[in-house]
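ping. complex inputs:
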Amino acid sequence: MGRKITKIIALSLGLSLLLCSCYDRKELEEYGYVLIVGFDKGTKDAIRVTVQLGTYKNGGGGQGQGTTGDTGRGQIEGAIVSTVEAPSFFTGLNMLSAGLSRQINLMHTKYIVFSEELAREGQIETYIAPLVRYREIRSTMFVLVSKGKAEDFIMETRALAGTMPAKSMEMSMEQMSHTGFAPDTNLYDFYNDAKSGYRQPVATLVSVNEFKEDEASSPKEAEESGGQYTAGQVPREGALRREIFGAGIFNGYKMVGQLDGDDTRLLLMARGEFKRGFFSIKDPMNEKQVVPLDIRMARQPKIKVDTSGDVPKISLALELEGMILSIQSGTNFENVELKPVLEKAFADEIRNGLDELVKKSQREFGTDIMGFARKAAGNFLTIQDWQEYDFAKKYPDAKVSTEVDFVIRRTGMLQKTSEELSGSDEK
Amino acid sequence: MLKSEKFGPFEGASMVIVLITGKMFLTSPRLVIDKSGTAAWLVTLVSAIVGLLGFYIILALLKRFPGKDIMDIFNIVFGRKIGGLFILMFFLLFMYNGALTLREFVESMKTYVYPLSPPTYMIGALLCAIIPLCYFGIESIGRTTGFCISAILGAVTLIMILAIPLYKPYNLTPVFGYGLDKAVLLGTMRSSVYGEVLILAVFSKCLQGTEHIKKAGVWAVAVSGAVLVLSFISIGMVYSFSVASELTIPIFQLTRIIRYSRFIQRLESIFIFAWSVSAILMVTILFFTSLILYSRVFDIRDYKPLVLPGGVLLFALSMYPPDITSIAVGQVHIIRQYAWIIYFILPAAALAAASLLKKGGSRDGKKNN
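pong. complex structure:
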C-alpha cells in the first residue's frame, strides 16, 4: 500500500512538471506582434527596416480626409511604427528591440513591403530567401511594392474602422477579389513564381495618395475605364491615404515594370485569378455614354502552347460572363437583338487590351507574366528537355493569339429599358 | 513470450502503415523531390510496387515455415550463429532507425514548433510515452496504433482536401521529372521505405496464420503507397519542384499556407497532433521490434528487463548525430536508399537457401525433409 502511494505521488509530481506548460511557453504580452515589415534602401547601413507593431489598444478610427492622424513620430492609432538601419533584416529586428520592452514576433505579420527602388535593383531576393526560411514568417503574408518609401506607406496604414488593424489589413487585400485592380500576391506565390519558371511573379502595387488631384489631366467626359491609374494616383479624397492599386511586374526577383488597374485586371484574367470587377465600356450605340458591367470569369482561361518550332505559338482563350449594372443611354441592350452588340463590344475591348498587354509583356518587360510557360512545360517529358528549350528566352518572340468570349447572363433587377412616355423632349 | 499476445490483420496493417506513412512527416520527402523533380509521386509508386514484391518474398518464406517467425526461420536455415548474426543486423537496423526517427522528429519539432526546448528534454519527454508502451507489449502497441490510425490518416486526408484551392497541376510537369529511368531506379532503391513491412514476419506468431499476414501486409503496402503517392502529388501541385526541394518538411509547410478567409487558417495545429502521435508510435514500434530481435538473438526469455536499458541506448543513439543536415542528408538517406538489402535481400537469401538446402515445407505446406 505504501509503495503504491509513493508511486502515485511520484507520478503526480512528474506529471505536474510536464503538464503545467511546454518549455517554449510565452505569455502573449511578452511579444510585440509585427503587422507590417518594410524594406527601404539604407543611407547609413545596407537596409532600412520599418516595422509596424500592433498595440491592440485605441485601435482603428482612421481620421479620414487625408489627415495622417499621427500622435507623434512613430505612433499611429492602434500601432507603433519603428525604423532602423541595419546590415540585415534579422539584425535589424534585434536592434529594434533596444527600444521595445517586448520580444518582436512575426507570426501575425500581414504585409511585407519593398520600396520600388529596392525592387528595381533586384535586391528583393536578398530579403525574401531569409524570410521564407524563418519559422515565424507565414507564407500567407502579402507581398507589396511601394512606389515611394515603404516606411511612408507603413506610416499611413491603419484600420479605417473597427479596432483591429491586422483584420483591416487582411480585409483590404480581400477587396482585390471584388475589384481586380491589384493582385493579392502572397509570399508563397511570389517565391514559387520567382523560383519555378512556370510564370513570373507580380506584386501588389501600393503607395500613399497625397490627395492632390491634377485638374488638367482629369477627363472631362466618361472616356476612361476608371482603372487607368496606379497606386497613389487615384483621384479621390477621404478615407485612408494608403492606396492599393496596380501591380509590380517582375522578372525573377527584379522588378521590371508596373501595370495600372486596367492592365492588372487583364493580367489576372489571363492568369485565371480574376474574381470579379465592375467595368465601364463605351456604349456601342452612343459613344458619349458608358455601360457599367459586373464581370466574372465563366471558367479558367484556355491556354495552348505549341513548342514544336523554335518560336512558341500561344493561344489564349478567355470566357467571361457578366451582368448589366446600368445603361446610361437608355438603349434596350436587354433585348435579344441588341444584347450581342454589347457582348461583342466588351469582348473586343478585352481582346484588344489583352493583345496590348501581351505586346507589353514581350517588348517592354520581356517576361512571361501571364504564365504561358505553365502549359508549355507540359509539352516536355523531362526537366532537362524543358530547360533546354528555354521558354523564357523565346517568349519575347512568341506568336500569341487571343480570343475572348463574353456572355451577358443577367440584366440586373430590370429586364427591359423602356422609353419615357411622358415629357416633351424628343430623343 | 509473444505467443500469448495476439492481434488481427487490422492492427498489424496499422502498425506497418504508421511506420511507412510516418516518413512523409519527416525530412526524407524533400530529398526524393530534390532527386526526382516533378516525378516524386512516380518514385514512391515504384517503391511501393517493389516493396510489395519484397513483402511477397517474406510471405513465401513464412509460408515455407508455417507457425514460425523470421527469427526461427533464420536459425533453421542458417544455423544459430549465422542466423543470429543476420537477426542482429535486423536489430541494429531497427534500433538505429528508431533512434534516427526520434531525433529527426525532435529536430523537426524544434525547427517548426518548439525552438527553445533542448533536444534532450524533448527526447526525454517522448521516451516517457514510448517506454511504458513497450512494457505493455506488442498487443497493446498494435491496438493503440489501430485506434490512432484513423485519426492520423484522417488528418492527412483533411489536409489534402483543404489544400485543393492551392493545387496547380502544371507544377507536376514535365511529368517524368529528371527522367523515367532515374525515377524507376530511385524508386527501386528507395523501396526500403516499405521495408518495415518485415515487422509482420517478426510478430508472425501474434497474427493467426499466413493468410492474416498476407492480408495485413498487402493492405498496409497498398494503403501506405496510396497515401504517399497522393501526398507527393499534393505537395507537387502546391509547390514547384524547385521550391519543394528546399523545404525541410514539405507537407508541414503545406498546412501552414492553407487559408480559407480569415477564419480558417493556421491548420498546422491539427497536423501537429497527428504528427506527434505518428512519430511516437513509429519510434515505439521500431524500438519494441528491436528489443524482441535482440532478446531472440541472445535467447532472453523476457524482453521487459531490456526496455529501460534499451531506452537509455535509444536516447544515446538519438543524440549521436550532430545536426539535422547529417540526419536528413546523411544517415536517414543511407537507410532509405540501402536498407532494402537487409529488409528484402536477407529474407530472399533465406528463401533461396531453404529451397537449396530443402529446409522447411513447400509452399503448399508439405514438408520436404
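The two ends of chain A are 105 Å apart (CA to CA).
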